[in-house]
Design goal:
Elements lengths: L2 H21 L8 E3 H8 L7 E5 L15 E6 H7 L4 E3 L5 E3 L5 E2 L1 E5 L5 H4 L7 E5 L7 E4 L4 E9 L3 E9 L8 E4 L2 E10 L13 E2 L4 E4 L14 E9 L9 H11 L5 E3 L2 H4 L6 H5 L5 H5 L2 H8 L2
Antiparallel strand pairs: 1-4, 2-3, 2-17, 5-6, 5-9, 7-8, 8-16, 9-15, 10-11, 10-14, 11-13, 12-13, 13-16, 16-17
The structure holds zinc ion.
Zinc ion binds next to loops.
């Protein structure tokens, strides 16, 4: 693709983005709710349900096979109390058209599977979210939790520029959670997104429902079978966040170097409390393509 075409696309995206903010000011205003309030309202609270925390990341991404690594379990009750100051969205509409006129909810097409010994199958560290609408050009994924953009990182299985966000609490401070003996910072990775031009700068707070990336570029982003957003949560012990290494370095070392000091968490406990959680009604969508219908990316993926 020529440079001229690229700059034309950038220009169009910028105009669409500007229009989007003018038409739909909701996209730039905070519209969140305290996590504990969301839990209170949901009726989905399973205090004793056990989630796995994983802190031994195998070398990725040759094959998603996990030799070992379950280090501790934690109950939903404990997680909810650790995340009580988190601010999250008040509804399930995590996707929006770039003009801000339409929004849509999500399906989970591939769930977290941190321990194949328990659940079988391939290892997958995050949840893949696809829009409930048919695939449309310029569909954007909106930030589900209050967070600060701290950078982008090149993790091959996710994209050339996965967005990294640090969760911030209702006071605007970094959210630190206690898991057993460890105090950890909470980081969200949003993969397979094309960066929105002229959107957030690194270091800025990104409120709930702010658009954070395009899922429907013609480019095939990362190891993806179709347009979707991969959401992954990493907890990084605060002693590693001492400024010696950037967050990008820490994540890349863990990903490709077999370093093992971070903790990967099943994010289900957050999404299940969103009002009207679709998974509660329809289960998990089996295939991205059935919902996204991206012929272009399908061709690219299968070479057809
Ligand atoms: Zn994924």
């Amino acid at each position: 693709m020529g440079t001229e075409r690229n700059s034309e696309i950038s220009r169009r995206k910028f105009l669409a983005w500007t229009l989007c903010l003018i038409i739909n000011p909701d996209l730039r205003t905070p519209a969140g709710i305290e996590y504990s309030k969301l839990v209170e309202k949901s009726g989905n609270f399973e205090k004793d349900r056990v989630y796995t925390l994983l802190s031994e990341i195998p070398v990725m991404p040759t094959e998603y096979v996990l030799p070992a690594g379950r280090v501790m379990d934690i109950s939903e009750g404990e997680l909810v109390s650790a995340f009580k100051d988190l601010v999250t969205t008040t509804d399930t509409n995590l996707y929006s058209s770039s003009d801000g006129m339409d929004s849509s909810s999500y399906f989970v097409s591939h769930q977290v599977n941190l321990d194949p010994k328990l659940y079988g199958g391939k290892l997958h560290f995050g949840e893949d979210m696809v829009t409930t609408d048919e695939h449309k050009k310029n569909t954007i994924f909106c930030n589900p939790i209050r967070a600060r953009l701290v950078g982008r990182v090149d993790i091959r299985r996710l994209s050339p520029g996965t967005g990294i966000f640090r969760a911030i609490d209702k006071y605007g401070q970094d959210l630190d959670v206690n898991l057993g003996e460890k105090k950890c910072g909470v980081f969200m990775l949003y993969g397979h997104l094309v960066q929105l031009k002229n959107s957030q700068q690194v270091g800025t707070n990104v409120e709930v429902k702010a658009p954070i990336g395009d899922i429907t570029s013609d480019s095939q982003i990362g190891a993806s079978s179709g347009p979707h957003c991969h959401v992954e949560m990493k907890l990084i012990p605060v002693e590693r966040l001492n400024g010696e290494k950037s967050i990008q370095q820490i994540l890349l070392e863990d990903e490709y170097g077999g370093v093992d000091k971070n903790i990967t968490v099943d994010t289900t406990f957050i999404w299940k409390f969103l009002p009207g959680d679709l998974r509660a009604k329809i289960g998990i969508a089996p295939e991205v393509f059935e919902y996204t219908k991206s012929i272009l990316s399908k061709r690219r993926h299968y070479g057809a």
